[in-house]
Amino acid sequence: MNLKAAARLGGRIGHFSIDGVRLPFREGQTIMAAAMEAGVYIPHLCYNPEFTPHGSCRLCVVRSNGRHLAACTTPAAEGLEVESHTDELQEQRRELLQMLFVEGNHVCPACEKSGACQLQAVAYYCGMLAPELTYFYPQRTVDASHPDIAIDYNRCILCELCVRASREADGKNVFSIADRGIHAHLQINSSTGKLRDSDLEVTDKAAHVCPTGAILPRNLGYNIPIGKRPYDQKPISLAGDVADHEESS
Amino acid sequence: MLELLAEKLHIPRTQVISVVEFYTFLHTRPQGEYEILISDSITDQMLGKQQLMDYLAGKLQVEVGTTRKDGLVSLDNTSCTGMCDQGPAGLVNGQVLTSLDTGKVDVLVDLMTRRVPVTEWPADFFQVRDNIHRSGLLLNDSIGKGEALQSAFARGLDETLQELENAGLRGRGGAGFKTAMKWRFAKQEQEPERYVVCNADEGEPGTFKDRVLLNSYAHEMFEGMTLCAAIIGAGKGFLYLRGEYQYLYEQLQQVLQQRRQSGLLGANIGGQDFNFDIEIHLGAGAYICGEESALIESLEGRRGIPRNRSPYPVSQGYLGKPTVVNNVETFVAAAKIAVHGGDWFAARGTSQSRGSKILSISGDCRQPGIYEYDFGVSIAEILGDCGADDVFGVQIGGPSGTFIGNAELERRLAFEDLATGGSFIIFDNSRNVLDIVQNFTDFFAHESCGFCTPCRVGTALLKKQFDKIRQGHGSAGDLVELEKLSRLIKNTSHCGLGQTAVNPILTTLERYPELYQSQLKDISFEPGFDLDGSLETARKLARRNDPAAHLAQGGE
Ligand SMILES: Cc1cc2nc3c(=O)[nH]c(=O)nc-3n(C[C@H](O)[C@H](O)[C@H](O)COP(=O)(O)O)c2cc1C
Ligand code: SF4
Ligand code: SF4
Ligand code: FES
């Protein structure tokens, strides 16, 4: 049984703590799921409660008993004492975020997602300033072949939320990852590799879960002006994830 | 070709691409008529690989990493091919080339130019020697075909599992999980459909003992797998054979066939109500597929991405069914324990590390090859036996293991002190430790599966950072950054690859800070900058890199 199913079934209630705050959890629930339900924010990018946890961005890594654990894939346990908002862990998160920024090409001022981008918002929350790491400047492209949805590979952080949403929610298989290591990249499952020739529709879940500006619905438009966007108003710990906002748009 | 595959398999074309791009030995574009890959292991480099590669590339008039315009030949590097005691080594169209030298290269180039098929090349090109120099508990002992199964059925399967537990056998793949406990877990699962997998991926640079077991002790290995199947109630087994060992494929198939003919595989084995058979699955050049859950993904036909745990493979492995994954040597040991009993094994070794360990010894010594020792043996004794003088240090357990300097040779081989999956690489005083670390760092960057941020981006950054320092462009700050990055990758990576990829840097930074310091740009030395102090964390961390810490991040 997967963790999500277990959590949905209810089950025995236990208690654990994050940074000294006592929280309830249902048997089988992950640290992340329990924290989210209790309104305790643990920075995350590849996690979305609607889909199978992935554990790839590693932003949610917390500490317990001297061990580092991904909150989104580790089940909560009775009496577990978790550290999350410590200087050491926030520093780690800043460095992980820097890695994501230098790996792709993120030009925030020129990005239409600015202010509504989860990557940007988490970076802001964790206090990441300009990246100090060496940029990779990879050669990536933009796919504007689809009438309703554009994909800018420069901004992809390989969180596979679109991959999972397409498979798990839309019953399709539009996205996949190819190659390995630093060459790993997102690809479209269509005869030409173009979005136009895939069966992605703008009403699909997969078109609305990207935490960055990599997948942008075109015609739905982002009509909210800069300054009024979700993360312009509130920090991500209060405003919630991109996917939540996409849903209401 | 891609289209054809996609059509035949009824999957999208891109799914074929996603898998093909993942594995080193698969390509989206046609390679030369002859595809040559030269092993880039540190041990091959120490045997003159680079000069040989330059010579070969020059003779062939082809750039490394490309295919010649006329399509005759492609030339590239590949990760350790497991021929470290007979390098420099390589592969031509998947067949192993050993003990290469310029003379052989001349012949090789001539054969290719004349378009002689590889099957007609001189046999001594492909000769692979066992080089067993010291036999112990496992290598000395020989059991008859079917003897372990007979003993187990006679004694009772539960009783045999108990013997295995009494033996104290721990996994020989490196992580050291108790074998009997793993089998017991699988046996206790509700789901009746179960699997046995033998991990013959042997990708850790400097390890080649499984290759020798596969060549000369295959019956015992298959017997161990069959024993496991009988005990846990599995109907099907897989041998996951690394692509580099494709030359053993036919021979292993024959062993399986013999076993079927002898009634040791198939239906009603040993006259019991027990059906089991084994299939060989070839890998295609990906170190990560040695990690058990990535291996299972690969078996299922996907990219080798390590799964989240729990669930562990023993409860949800191959096709989501209970699966026991063990190393080749573990199965060989299990078969022998079934015959001789647990005490036979437990009488040797140390309290936490019973029995013996087979080592693959390579590098600077007079007699590289296979050596078996009881656990607890000192490093100094091993070095004496294989003829290593003037030792600078030893890499124990491969790049993911530990580097020890010559002041630590009284340390012992055991899970309690220095754990190893079998790799034992010796360096003499003529070697530059930074060359070694650079080779290892490049290896991990090349082999990262790319799933998680710290390992995917971090190992690539380490490579850049290390190159910068090696080229003399590094400042003290770069060294501190190197250490910080290493710590992050170790702490936050999803699997054992990332968690151990930084061991070469951390273990040598701890021991030889002055060597790193000597690489720094003079002018960047800010006066009063306390490099030693700044690297304190590195030392603290490295000291934690003892066998106990190693266990926790291993495959279990
Ligand atoms: C990156 C990585 C590579 C590994 N490669 C191998 C390998 O080549 N062979 C092996 O037996 N175990 C390898 N392991 C360990 C396996 O995950 C697993 O623990 C082992 O096969 C279990 O068998 P054992 O208990 O008999 O050792 C590797 C682990 C990691 C993290
Ligand atoms: S396109 Fe967006 S959702 Fe998809 S993997 Fe990339 S960053 Fe994640
Ligand atoms: S640590 Fe490396 S090899 Fe392991 S999952 Fe992460 S990227 Fe893949
Ligand atoms: S949110 Fe847990 S690893 Fe990405």
Which terms summarize this structure?
heterodimer, A: 249 residues, alpha+beta, Ubiquitin-like (UB roll), Alpha-Beta Plaits, 2 domains, three-stranded mixed sheet, three-stranded antiparallel sheet, 8 helices, 16% strand, B: 556 residues, alpha/beta, Glutaredoxin, Rossmann fold, 4 domains, six-stranded mixed sheet, five-stranded mixed sheet, 25 helices, 15 strands, 14% strand, globular, disordered C terminus, binds flavin mononucleotide, binds iron/sulfur cluster, binds FE2/S2 (inorganic) cluster
User: Helical region count of chain B?
Assistant: 25
As residue ranges, the low-confidence spans of chain B are 541-556
The CATH topology of the largest domain in chain A: Alpha-Beta Plaits
What is the approximate shape of chain A? globular
The pLDDT mean of chain B sits at: 93
Helix content of chain A: 25-40%
Terminal residue distance of chain B:
39 Å
Please give the alpha-carbon distance between the first and last residues of chain A: 34 Å
Bound molecules: flavin mononucleotide, iron/sulfur cluster, FE2/S2 (inorganic) cluster
Short structural description:
The complex is a heterodimer of chains A (249) and B (556). Chain A has 8 helices and 10 strands.
What do these coordinates show?
The complex is a heterodimer of chains A (249) and B (556). Chain A is an alpha+beta fold. Chain A has two domains: 3-84, Ubiquitin-like (UB roll) (Roll), CATH 3.10.20; 90-217, Alpha-Beta Plaits, CATH 3.30.70.20. Helix content of chain A is 25%, strand content 16%. Chain A has helices at 3-8, 31-37, 87-103, 118-126, 161-169, 230-233, 236-239, 242-248, and strands at residues 13-18, 21-26, 61-64, 67-70, 81-82, 142-143, 149-152, 175-178, 185-188, 215-217. In chain A, the strands form four sheets. A three-stranded mixed β-sheet of chain A has the order 2-1-5, covered by helices on one side. A three-stranded antiparallel β-sheet of chain A has the order 6-7-10, with no helix packed on it. In chain A, β8 and β9 (185-188) form a beta hairpin. The longest helix of chain A has 17 residues, at 87-103. Chain A is globular, with a radius of gyration of 18 Å. The two termini of chain A are 34 Å apart. The model of chain A has no long low-confidence stretch (mean pLDDT 91). With 556 residues, chain B is of the alpha/beta class. Chain B has four domains: 31-126, Glutaredoxin (3-Layer(aba) Sandwich); 133-346, Rossmann fold; 356-428, Ubiquitin-like (UB roll) (Roll), CATH 3.10.20.600; 433-552, Up-down Bundle (de novo design (two linked rop proteins)). Chain B is 42% helix and 14% strand. Chain B has 25 helices and 15 strands. In chain B, the strands form three sheets. In chain B, strands 6-12-11-15-13-14 form a six-stranded mixed β-sheet. Chain B has a five-stranded mixed β-sheet with strand order 2-3-1-4-5, with helices on one face. A four-stranded parallel β-sheet of chain B has the order 9-8-7-10, with helices on both faces. The complex binds flavin mononucleotide (FMN), iron/sulfur cluster (2 copies) and FE2/S2 (inorganic) cluster (FES).
